[in-house]
Specification:
This protein is an alpha/beta fold and 574 residues long. It is 34% helix and 21% strand. The strands form five sheets. A six-stranded mixed beta sheet has the order 6-7-8-3-9-10, with helices on both faces. The protein has a six-stranded mixed beta sheet with strand order 18-19-20-15-21-22, with helices on both faces. 43% of the residues are buried.
Length: 574
């Protein structure tokens, strides 16, 4: 008999014409002590599924049994850890865990409560922080408190709903190892909801995809028959790991394909016009073609020339197009000056795509913000196209992790704001064509006039990418732009970014903590040492053919060698 059994479980929301069936005919059997990862993407019904198993949501039909008993409501027998930190901010680590112990074991004496609470705080490695409050803890430490609290209640099964997705790569890896260690120690049955294939491969006995909804159903299960303990670097050489990873990734891409929309089937042509951030000669030459904001005697576009703006594509490959020399950043603190970045030196060629990777706190975003002119430089300097960077400017377009859009404006209006600033000499139609071209290229041709508040996070980031390219910048700066998105949306937007970058060849720098993203996108990967006093630790050339796709990448014979270089460097910085 299965320890956890779901039989023909279905769940819908709404009624009548507004009814949406989220889960359809879900069947699942899990053995006692098994670790199962359910992999899916945003909107597939993963949280609805875990909440149903937890008894927090009642299914419309079907049954859920835990150890032969029908699940009819919430119970301490099912410990749940969600993505968000649900801690009492006024209580200490001890207080948050002890509260659960007191509720589940009312017969315990104060001494028994203390011993039981401290046992599980020690189990998650937080004995040193037992009297701290949540505000004094890092994100990873808060999630450890959640795990300790769930385990202290003595559940028969542990349900983890993307508990690590909001954490940086190093903290996430450490907590993955911690959860596996606790699982092996406690012999608990675990169900993990995740959108990260690698997380499932590191932790689980089985991986089961949840196909996108509505009417979400399970796909084929993948048995993870990799020996434990699983070392990330050693697995990189394991042919079974490579095969499993490739099979699961390709399956998820196949079931999650979203076709890119175009603007009502029309092909938008970009006008042959340069932004006002181009050189004075180019701008004056361009403006001389216009009288009263009308185009005069403009030559017909060359049919063999791609319909993209290329104001900065002359001299592609020019060395030292972007130069960092002895770049440093020092912040004043109550304990004295703190040097975050020190002696950062790097030369970037025109048209090159650079990824910067490193652990949280290594100064990646600090370097990017100084390049954007949003953060002052303490020492050294940055030179872009023979001009020193000393302030923000439209010649550098930035896409941040959180979409920075005006929610009351439409997609078109958000892009148009920047276009009007850098193309004031263009006609109204030319500016309109620029906006529509890039919005259609990122798959928003049918959402031009939707307000930003009506868009998903993935769609908002598409607007941000379109806006950045529409400025026709000399330099594109990307600060973990896909870090808040689920894997499928992230994969899609990586493809979009590569497609548009291939057409424009704009010089680009992306800050990321994702090893695969760094390899997929970059010509070179710059690895930063840990802070404080972080600098360039190592640079890896990525000699993989372009255009690149995720599918071709995982099957390329050199891919895992590049991956191992990055993993080895990051592990050496732990």
């Amino acid at each position: 008999m299965s320890f956890l059994a779901l039989s023909q479980v279905s769940k819908s929301y709404g009624s009548g014409a507004n009814k949406t069936e989220v889960l359809s005919d879900i069947n699942l059997n899990i053995s006692e002590g098994e670790f199962v990862a359910i992999v899916g993407f945003s909107g597939t019904g993963k949280t609805t599924l875990i909440s149903t198993i937890a008894g927090l949501i009642k299914p419309d039909s079907g049954s859920i049994k835990l150890n032969g008993e029908v699940v009819t409501g919430p119970s301490a027998k099912r410990g749940v850890v969600f993505q968000s930190y649900s801690l009492m901010p006024w209580l200490t680590v001890y207080g948050n865990v002890a509260m659960a112990v007191e509720t589940v074991y009312p017969e315990y004496s104060k001494e028994q409560i203390r011993q039981h609470t401290e046992k599980y705080i020690e189990l998650v490695g937080l004995s040193h922080a037992i009297q701290r409050r949540p505000a004094e803890l890092s994100g990873g430490m808060r999630q450890r408190v959640n795990v300790a609290r769930a385990l202290a209640a003595g559940p028969k099964i542990l349900l983890l709903d993307e508990p690590l997705s909001a954490l940086d790569a190093l903290t996430r890896a450490n907590l993955q190892d911690e959860i596996v260690r606790i699982w092996e120690h406690e012999k608990k049955t675990v169900v993990l909801i995740t959108n990260d294939v690698d997380e499932g491969l590191i932790m689980a006995d089985r991986i089961i995809p949840l196909n996108p909804g509505p009417n979400a159903t399970f796909g084929p299960e993948f048995v993870v028959d990799l020996p434990r303990p699983r070392d990330r670097t050693a697995m990189n050489h394991d042919e079974r790991f490579k095969s499993l990873r490739s099979s699961i990734t390709q399956y998820l891409m196949q079931v999650g394909i979203v076709e890119t929309s175009q603007t009502n089937g029309n092909i938008i042509q970009l006008p042959d016009i340069k932004p006002n951030t181009a050189s004075d000669f180019e701008r004056q030459t361009d403006q001389s073609k216009r009288v009263d904001n009308k185009t005069v005697n403009q030559p017909a576009p060359d049919p063999e020339t791609p319909d993209v703006l290329k104001p900065y594509q002359d001299n592609l490959g020019e060395r030292k197009y972007l130069e960092y020399f002895n770049l440093s950043k020092v912040y004043p603190t109550s304990k004295g000056p703190l040097t975050v970045v020190e002696q950062f030196n790097l030369n970037i060629s025109k048209g090159e795509f650079i990824s910067i990777i490193g652990h949280s706190g290594c100064g990646k975003s600090t370097v990017l913000s100084m390049t954007a002119g949003l953060n002052t430089i303490s020492d050294g300097g940055i030179v872009l196209d023979k001009k020193e960077v000393n302030a923000a400017g439209p010649d550098r377009a930035v896409v941040f992790q959180a979409p920075s859009l005006f929610p009351w404006m439409t997609s078109f209006e958000n892009v148009s704001l920047g276009v009007e600033r850098v193309f004031p000499h263009a006609t109204i139609q030319e500016r309109k064509d620029i906006c529509e071209y890039y919005l259609s290229k990122v798959g928003l041709g049918d959402a031009l006039h939707k307000k930003a508040s009506e868009l998903s996070n993935g769609m908002k980031q598409r607007v941000g990418i379109a806006r950045a390219f529409a400025l026709s910048p000399k330099l594109l700066l990307l600060d973990e732009p896909f870090g808040m998105l689920d894997s499928l949306t992230r994969w899609e937007l990586q493809e979009v970014l590569m497609e548009v970058w291939t057409r424009t060849k704009v010089t680009a720098i992306m800050v990321t903590h994702d090893v695969d993203e760094a390899i997929l996108l970059a010509d070179r990967v710059v690895m930063m040492t840990n802070g404080p006093r972080a600098n360039v630790g190592k640079i890896m050339d990525v000699n993989l053919p372009r255009p690149r796709t995720r599918k071709s990448l995982v099957s390329h014979p050199d891919y895992y060698a590049y991956r191992e270089q990055l993993l080895t460097f990051l592990e050496s910085c732990d």
